[in-house]
Amino acid sequence: MSTAFAGKVAVVTGAGSGIGRALALNLAQRGAKLALSDVDVNGLAETVRQVEALGGEVESQFLDVTQRENVLDYAETVKTRFGKINQIYNNAGIAYHGDVEESSFKDIERIVDVDFWGVVNGTKAFLPHLHESGDGHIVNVSSLFGLLAMPSQAAYNAAKFAVRGFSEALRIELLISKAPVKMTVVHPGGIKTAIARNATVAENYDQQSVAKFFDSKLAKTTPDQAAKTILKGVEKGKGRVLIGSDAIALDLLVRVTGSKYQGLIATVAKRVMPRKK
Known about the structure:
By secondary structure, this protein is of the alpha/beta class. It has helices at residues 18-29, 41-53, 68-82, 105-133, 154-177, 207-218, 223-236, 245-257, 261-272, and strands at residues 9-12, 33-38, 58-62, 87-90, 96-97, 136-141, 181-188, 200-201, 240-243. Strands 3-2-1-4-6-7-9 form a seven-stranded parallel beta sheet, sandwiched between helices. Helix 1 links the parallel strand 1 and strand 2 (33-38). Helix 1 packs parallel to helix 2 (41-53) and helix 1 (18-29) packs across helix 7 (223-236). The protein is globular, with a radius of gyration of 18 Å.
């Protein structure tokens, strides 16, 4: 087993499905002890069942990452249960599809609360324990949409760009202070999860059409492939991990073209993206 994970205590939020579940299973296979959470208690229970079938040591708890005091309490609970905390995977997230003009303030706030503040809450709550372990690692899941903007994704873009900026700034701070904590920000491309099917949409979009478009056109990488790529990046101490050929190609597009990529995206989006009602 890899010394990067064997015997380490790893916390995974959003562990009830998708990348979170795949991370839990892959970490268990590598000998990590797991603290798993989600708002989906049924999905979380299934993840626990699969981890235990692998012989993994696991504790689970319902957790809404937007509730800061609960996240702070959860960090203390995990520390008490395992005696240490080595890794936190801030993975919990939700999706939303809607143009800025048709999106309510509440729609935008909800995405930012979960996808950005949830990451901040998890990072801040667990960082002291990671320092104390002497061998800490924070993994914050951003998105391909934390690297480039897309129409109808302004709220999600805002949150995921914020995760990227927050994480990269923290990594620089940790490097300056020579802290015993590493920082990795992850940018998955299209992953075959239920995030699009569970997404909310503005009233002028059809949810099923949006989900079908994502599943058929964008979701190319499996959660297991994503988890393996993330853990390889953690093992190597990488600051940034791109997942999928789409993330790699579009990151390069932005770097090469600068803001000109926005015109290219607009041209393609007119032809292929889900239509408004």
